[in-house]
Design a protein that fits this description.
Layout lengths: L2 E5 L6 H12 L3 E3 H9 L3 H8 L1 H16 L6 E3 L10 H8 E7 L2 H8 L13 H16 L4 E4 L4 H14 L4
Parallel strand pairs: 1-3, 1-4, 2-3, 4-5
Helix pairs in contact: 1-8, 2-4, 3-4, 4-5, 6-7
Length: about 170
């Protein structure tokens, strides 16, 4: 078993589903945003505010590459933009199994309605911002090796991913 990367929009459940999938696979779980925060010594929101998106994307890419080169398996929840910048989706697909958690915009809006730590969708109409972001990112997300319509509980989604992984062994 190689590495498993969960990709998708902010609020799609990458972290929650990823943690459950890691337990099922008996693998370490990595949240790329938490790795960025640890490396930067500040929150993702602070990195965006103080250093800008370009700095954030460079750091995100460097950490994604670093994890992709490690000699062991893990489950990673990427940030929503990680596959979309600096050849992220190619790094992910070469390194392991990529799973796109596809969630309707209405569900994303409901999930993140009160959250303040999503720098790309702060202020204004969140649904409109999420729609624009998804239109931009969907072609890249669809390069994932598998797409899961992320409906149901996180445990259900993790089980469906596990079944797919079992039927598609990774080298």
């Amino acid at each position: 078993m190689k590495r498993v990367y969960l990709i998708g929009m902010p609020g799609s459940g990458k972290s929650v589903v990823g943690a459950r999938l890691a337990v099922l696979l008996r693998l370490p779980f990595v949240d790329l945003d938490e790795e960025i925060e640890r490396e930067a010594g500040m929150t993702v929101t602070q990195v965006f505010a103080e250093k800008g998106e370009a700095y954030f994307r460079e750091l995100e890419s460097r950490l994604l590459r670093s994890w992709a080169e490690r000699p062991y398996a893990f489950v990673m929840a990427t940030g929503g933009g990680a596959p979309c910048f600096h050849d992220g989706i190619d790094i992910i697909n070469r390194s392991g199994a990529s799973i796109f958690l596809d969630v309707p915009i209405s569900a994303l809006v409901a999930r993140i309605a009160e959250e303040e730590h999503r720098p790309l969708i702060q202020g204004g109409d969140r649904e409109e911002k999420l729609n624009a972001l998804l239109q931009q990112r969907r072609p890249i997300y669809e390069k994932a090796q598998h797409t899961v319509v992320a409906s149901g509980t996180p445990d259900d989604i993790a089980e469906r991913i596990l079944k797919w992984l079992e039927s598609h062994p990774q080298g």
